[in-house]
Design a protein that fits this description.
74 residues; mainly alpha; 3 helices; 81% helix
Length: 74
């Protein structure tokens, strides 16, 4: 997730528990989506879509936190 912000992600994971939680939840959802798309887990289309939407919301929140962090460091 957001590999171009690797340094910022590392800093935020260390210093911000909320960001670390969001990051972990996003990665867990990413794995669930990957498992479903690879056929390792059976989900309905609606369930898969719901997971993808939750994942995107977490990514958006993390991205905003990264941008805010970068702005505060400037």
């Amino acid at each position: 997730m957001l590999h171009e912000y690797r340094d910022e992600i590392h800093e935020l994971k260390q210093s911000n528990a909320h960001f670390a939680n969001i990051f972990e939840k996003h990665n867990a959802l990413d794995q669930q989506v990957e498992d479903a798309e690879a056929g390792r887990t059976v989900l309905t289309d609606a369930e898969l879509e719901t997971l993808k939407k939750k994942k995107l919301l977490l990514k958006d929140e993390a991205y905003q936190m990264i941008l805010d962090y970068k702005k505060s460091q400037a």
